[in-house]
Design a protein that fits this description.
66 residues, Dodecin-like, 1 helix, elongated, Dodecin-like_sf
Length: 66
């Protein structure tokens, strides 16, 4: 039987929500091992002068506890 744990991570990107999600997983994987999935819980963006400047995600990362 596997035991799984979920953590919540916030990340941002100047490029896209997809890139912000990849950055969240990449950064979390430096200290969290056995990552199994990522769930994008929330997306937002900052706007300046009518243009999107930054994409933000709130993700839930699931990993197996050994």
């Amino acid at each position: 039987m596997a035991v799984l744990k979920v953590i919540e991570v916030l990340a941002n990107s100047d490029e896209s929500w997809e890139d912000a999600t990849k950055k969240a997983v990449s950064h979390a994987s430096k200290s969290v091992k056995n990552i199994r999935s990522v769930y994008v819980n929330e997306q937002s963006a900052t706007v300046d002068d009518g243009e999107v400047k930054e994409f933000r995600v709130n993700v839930k990362i699931t990993f197996e506890v050994k």
